[in-house]
Amino acid sequence: MNEVPAVARNWWLFVVLGVICVATGIAAMVWPHITLLTLGILAGIYLLIAAVMEIIDAISGDAGGRAMSAILGVLALIAGLLCIRRPGESLLAVVIVVGVYLVAAGVLRIVRAFGSEGNRWWGFAAGAVDAIAGIVVLSWPELGLVTLAVFFAITMLFRGVFSIVIGLKLRGLRDVDPTPPQQSASFA
After folding, report:
1. In which domain, by residue range, is 19 found?
2. Which of 11, 44, 68, 178 would be 171's cystine partner, CB 3.0–4.6 Å?
């Protein structure tokens, strides 16, 4: 009896992360004048959840991507703790933390996409969006809070929908038997 891969068994984690991302994105869109403190805390919470997901992937995921998942998990953990520890210090601090995380996450996702099998373009597209979002955020640190909140919201909505789709696709994989059916021997 073959065991279902851990990532397929834990499909619901992707869906939960996606729902949290979508909710965060909607909240930032509905209330664009949200304070830096709230934006910093929301970004910190998201980054901490993303860190946990990446660290779980580094422990139980595919051997080829463990190192990248571990690096991304540590970066997300540090960025999340900084956002939560000093959410209201300055817009520049939040911009730098979020921007660096998005660039690192995007580049690592693109690298992973080239090494993966199947639908590589999903990973490449998600990585490209993250990297571009991070570059834009880092390029214009004087962005106003409302602009940053809307940009952050759009990114969270995209990431949330992507994570939900991946989670639901993984849910379908949990029931698939990875062993091919055995041929019956015929004695003719």
Report:
1. 6-173
2. 11
